[in-house]
Specification:
This protein has helices at about 5, 15-25, 35-50, 50-60, 65-95, 100-105, 110-145, 150-165, 170-195, 200-205, 215-230, 235-240, 245-275, 285-290, 295-320, 330-345, 355-380, 405-425, 430-450, 465-475. By secondary structure, it is mainly alpha-helical. The protein has one domain: Hydantoin permease (Orthogonal Bundle), CATH 1.10.4160.10. This is Purine-cytosine transporter.
């Protein structure tokens, strides 16, 4: 859009805003990254230093012992983080967002299925985070004035998030790493306070509450599912990396460090509550705010605003990148999804079902990412060509635009995950068997149908392909 076009008399304020946002949004197609290792590490460090990750750690103690919770947090983060890094690297190599990459394995139309699941997942995250911010604000306001309306404050928080996603997401991206440093300082304060009051041995001696229903395998599943839930945005972030090394090292270190710190802090904070004679009320920010003070409430609120803004922006980006039509534009998509996210912020009962929500996320996306990784790294020999940007036809059309085999593997994998979670619990959890089964099924189908490509190719970013470069130059 030219400046002359933007200033054309008679154009409505809505139209001018829509054109400006389309000009500055990611839009459809690949991007070439420019960020180095340190900047990528800070993005991932900031992204997961959020109240939801911290409060996830409060779910585990005293359901399992504090040392076991810490061990499963570290192990699960390393396992889930490996998937996140590999999917993110696909974004660095191609320049495409995560859901755009599903077109390579699920088909140009079959990818609409994981995109729909992604919208549900991100919408759920936006609701949960808005509610947590609202509950925290309500707690502080009630303490000061006696007025209480958690639903009202949840809606107001999400309304602010939607406005930031539309108008200020670029600014949030710049501010978020600095906010991460503030959060790290406050996390250090909580750790110091906790361990000055009680020794690690006292935390380790907290009696396990077997009635809570937690086992090491269930904790491991939830931690891995947390990584999987972030993987839906991993290529969005990592396609901003200048090199593969910058993306993989930055995201790996940033994600693992932030998740382990936040979850262990949650487990430690709730352990501190127990040792201090309080009730272990999991996934409730007011419990730890009451102990560690109003500054923690401010940090929770700001971290939710920053992270949830990028979650809402990620939803919009997924839809805009879903189809090649330029008629699917940023502003109307943001307004529709924003309205749904604001309405959903009134459903406070979802907070009581957060562990079940993570379980569903894992069931939906573990097989998706297993299929994606096998398809790209093993079947396609780490290469997607420009056909992935087409609306129909080409190498990723399969049968009517749908790779039926990928969809079937997805259904089998999701069913297996739910079966191993709720019907016949697996001693090693559901996520690892689900991933392995889904990967082997898809690889077996590719081998049986002769689809494995062993051609050695020099790596080429999609923007380096002549037809794609010409199209972008024309724009």
């Amino acid at each position: 859009m030219t400046q002359e076009h933007a200033r054309t008399p008679g154009r409505s304020a809505y139209r001018r805003l829509a054109d400006q946002l389309d000009t500055h949004s990611d839009g459809y197609g690949p991007l070439r990254g420019t960020l180095g290792t340190g900047r990528m590490g800070m993005i991932w460090l900031a992204a997961n230093l959020v109240v939801t990750t911290l409060l996830t750690g409060t779910l585990f103690v005293p359901g399992v012992t504090w040392p076991m919770a810490v061990a499963m947090i570290v192990l699960g983060t390393l396992i889930g983080g490996s998937v996140l890094v590999l999917v993110g690297n696909m974004g660095t190599r191609t320049g495409l967002a995560t859901m755009s990459l599903t077109k390579g394995s699920f088909g140009l139309r079959g990818s609409f299925l994981p995109v729909a699941a992604n919208l549900v997942t991100l919408m759920g995250w936006s609701w949960v985070q808005a509610m947590l911010a609202g509950v925290t604000v309500n707690f502080v306001v009630e303490e000061m004035t006696g007025f209480s309306s958690p639903v009202l404050f949840s809606v107001l928080c999400q309304l602010l998030v939607v406005c930031l996603a539309i108008f200020g997401h670029a600014g949030i991206e710049r501010v978020e790493p600095w906010l991460a440093l503030v959060i790290l300082v406050f996390m250090a304060y909580i750790f110091i306070t906790a361990f000055l009051a009680y020794s690690p041995a006292e935390f380790a001696a907290i009696p396990q509450d077997t009635a809570a229903g937690w086992t090491p395998a269930v904790v491991l599943d939830v931690v891995i599912a947390t990584a999987i839930s972030w993987t839906v945005l991993s290529a969005e972030f990592n396609r901003l990396a200048r090199t593969q090394a910058a993306g993989m090292i930055g995201s790996g270190v940033g994600y693992v460090l932030s998740t382990v710190l936040a979850m262990v802090l949650g487990a430690t904070a709730i352990g501190f509550v127990v040792l201090d004679g309080g009730d272990a009320v999991a996934f409730d920010p007011t419990v730890i705010v009451a102990i560690f003070g109003a500054p923690l409430a401010v940090v929770i609120f700001l971290s939710v605003m920053a992270t949830n803004t990028m979650v809402v922006y990620g939803m919009v980006s997924s839809v805009v990148n879903m189809v090649t039509s330029r008629r699917v534009t940023f502003l109307p998509t943001a307004l529709v999804l924003g309205a749904v996210s604001i309405l959903g912020a009134t459903w406070l009962a979802l907070l009581d079902r957060f562990a079940a929500f993570l379980t569903v996320v894992g069931a939906l996306f573990i097989p998706v990412f297993a299929v994606m990784l096998v398809d790209y790294y093993l079947v396609r020999s780490r290469h997607y060509n420009s056909d992935i940007l087409r609306g129909r036809g080409g190498a990723y059309w399969f049968t009517g635009g749908v790779n039926i085999a990928a969809v079937l593997v997805w259904l089998v994998g999701a069913g297996t995950s739910l079966f191993l979670t709720y019907t016949v619990p697996s001693p090693i959890g559901a996520t690892i068997p689900t991933f392995v089964l889904s990967a082997l099924l898809y690889l077996g189908w590719a081998a049986a149908t002769g689809r494995i490509d062993r051609t050695a190719r020099k790596h080429t970013h999609l923007l380096d392909e002549p037809e794609v470069a010409a199209d972008h130059a024309h724009r």
